[in-house]
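Continuing the batch. This is chain 6 of the set; chains 1 through 5 are on the previous pages. Same settings as before, nothing changed between runs. Recording input and output for traceability.
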Amino acid sequence: MGRVKGTLIKRVSKELLREYPDKFTSDFEKNKTIVNKVLTTYKRFRNSIAGYITRLIKMKEQEKK
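Output for chain 6:
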């Protein structure tokens, strides 16, 4: 089982997806660099946001199939 994400991470991730829907992909490393450019924050917070965005995008891709 994975760790539970906080509401702040979920809110910021969804906000970033709304603002930049075409920039993010299902690749964690690319998402991490994009989040780093958009936000100035701690490394752990950045990684959590990038991971949650990656997860959301992968879930959307699975729904399309």
